[in-house]
Amino acid sequence: MRKLVIGCDHAATELKAIVRDHLIERGFEVIDVGTHTTDSCNYPDYAHALCQKIQSGECELGILICGTGIGMSMAANKHKGIRAACCSDTFSARLTRLHNDANVLCFGARVLGAGLALDLADIFVDTAFEGGKHKTRIDMFVDIENGELKG
Ligand code: RB5
Q: What is the pTM of this model?
């Protein structure tokens, strides 16, 4: 069974539950790293908890939801090996898997509704990385992380 991880801040508790339950219904195992309430919290805590699950290899892909999706994607992209994409349209959600091998999808609960959120999540988890020339570019991210990209 494919294992996913999902997280959110207080702005997205309800939407996260909808997305999580949908993915479980589809047959995925989904770890929910919180938050579980609408009490104000700091989204980097949840981005960090989610990224650790991917970095360790426990989970294949993750979904992070905050008010805009932007803070979550910024926090997630501070982690080695994490390629987080903030998407509000289905074309970007598909292409960020095909070309960027994104391993975290972010979106904003204050930006889009549940119908689009579920489409984005489905497309993200159902699309495979194309590899080829795109792999060369993704490998360059590692060089950047290690301060080894030749200019
Ligand atoms: C929380 O108010 C809000 O700043 C957060 O959910 C997110 O939108 C940050 O990028």
A: 0.98
